[in-house]
Predict the structure.
Amino acid sequence: MNRELAGCLCFLCLATLALSSLAQTTSSKPTLASAFSAKSTTPAASKTNRTSTGHGTKAELLPMVINTWNFTAANVLAWRILKQSKGGLRQTRNAVVEGCTKCEKLQCDRTVGYGGSPDESGETTLDAMVMDGATMDVGAVAGLRRIKDAIKVARHVLEHTQHTMLVGDAASAFANAMGFESESLVTPESKDMWLQWTAENCQPNFWRNVHPDPKVSCGPYKPRPTPLTRWKEDRARTEYEIGRKNHDTIGMIAIDVENNIHVGTSTNGAKHKIPGRVGDSPIPGAGAYADNEVGAAVATGDGDVMMRFLPALLAVEAMRAGRPPAEAAEVGIRRILKHHKDFMGAVIAVDRLGNYAAACYGLDEFPFMVSSPAGKDGPTRMETVKCIAGQEKVNVVPL
């Protein structure tokens, strides 16, 4: 009996201790209901697209469309398409394709679309590209002949082939197979441009180390044996001015509220180029580059020089390394300046959150178009950036 009584007393003591411990636990921790209530009132910061604009304020930056030069109509159309769905979701590709198509139809500055920048034979050819920052897929065409809708053909390369780029007559044949009609890209204006150039002894041009002397005569040319000389002495095209009207590639970036990115480019290339020449615009990493994990960049200017340095890729990789867009945009420009002091070019860099900046050289300033909710007087505005001064000492910005 004594053993049974002792056991009962022991059990009662343990039960008392357990109840006391449970009471302490429930008083120090929230109930399931209170925990759920606290969680539901906490904003999910990782999902927000509100970030600093760089002016000490907060602004909603996405969705957004940004493009090179003051090609307003292209930007306005792309923005309207992007806004067809809430936050621009599933519309970024449509936005860049239709925005660049608008410039092709308007023949923006005669450097995009048909009827501009005739080559040495008087023909206009087109280059274009579309890149998807989610899949890293690219569709591009180069030296496209007799087809007006260059960026739409590039989209078909992206969506209906496993290739990245198609060129020349074969690209035109592909376009025909996809339902695009062949028509001349020459206009009376582009023909007059070519006739004036030939009347002025084909000046300027892109030849060097040939005879007859390309500085005073038209071709046909043949190679001229020449000793190895310094770059500046050996470069016949130093007299050829690449500038605002030669040429103004449209490069466009569209980002939705979930940070999905597409980039697009379109151009008719350099005026009086040697037939077959392709510049930077349709080259991934040169004319444009996009990666949903980081952001995107587009470039414009002297494509023959810029494509050697992949400035759009350099800008994106600089942002991946933690640099803000303003520094990232300068990386490619300053890398080029280490080797070429007489080029013209600009780069726009945008991170995945919608923060953006531009850098340029060879102009006083560079204009570009932006549409986003952050606009003070409406979503669409033109902005400009002062270019790096020609006499400024060049420091290469490391990645």
